[in-house]
Amino acid sequence: xxxxxxxxGGTNTRIARVSERLNIEEEIEIKSGKSLEEFxxxxxxxxxxxxxxxxxxxxxxxxxxxxKEKMLKKSPNLPFLNNFSFLKIEENVCIPLFLExxxxxxxxxxxxxxxxxxxxxxxxxxxxxxxxxxxxxILRGYQGYAGEIGHITVVPFGKRCSCGNRxxxxxxxxxxxxxxxxxxxxxxxxxxxxxxxxKENRKARRMVRCFSTFLGIGVASLINIFNPQAIIFGGKMxxxxxxxxxxxxxxVKRRSYLPSNVQFIRDPLPDKAGLLGMAYIALEGKVWKx
Length: 290
Hints:
Shape: globular
Radius of gyration: 19 Å
Order of helices and strands: EEEHHEEEEHEHEEEHHHHEHEH
CATH architecture of the largest domain: 2-Layer Sandwich
Number of helices: 10
CATH topology of the largest domain: Nucleotidyltransferase, domain 5
Mean pLDDT: 93
Helix content: 25-40%
Number of strands: 13
Largest sheet: 5 strands, mixed
Strand order of the largest sheet: 3-2-1-4-8
Structural class: alpha/beta
Strand content: 15-25%
């Protein structure tokens, strides 16, 4: 048996066929599209990568997900998919489909890969995402929208966030927020360049220290609330983990309510986290009856 899994991003979508032993047998990448009509061409790509052993499909997507009804309620990067029912895809491929928020999927997969029952998974990318696993289960909350780590407040009345609020963690640590500050000081420099530049440039070092401090404030709050075994970092910026981990840990230690032996882990497979997480969910999951 195998499962076909998708990680739908704002620009590209990854599709993979994954075996029961979590080996990726085949993987392709396509454009996510800019309209519902373009997006629905995804069905043909799913059919091509399926084989006779494919029994389930798992789809990870950023946004507010109703995983029982298989509906994407709101998507920040693909607004044409707001209130889109993935039952339309399930009906076309004729096998059970599982839908999950991408950060929840990454968190669930990481908890299985690291054999940890209580974790907080933080995706450090253009935005800041997150998923929480408690007692080996995804913490979804009353409506299923729990885990919006990037939108906890770290500075009351602070910088405006992309969500419309002020002082969110993402407004100080998200890739888009860092890039905005970088553009004020340098031309043609990226977020990755910033971390490299911090080795020798005082301004860059100050910006990374600021990033690390706000990230530490957010992480300390998460530790105080969830008391996890581990905080796991994924997303593109996690590759720069060595540049910010020491300062972040210093802030966490100072702001944590009780001493904690929480582990800090950089996911070695951040690019595959969503796909592998959905594979675990599809392989372990039960079909919801509406």
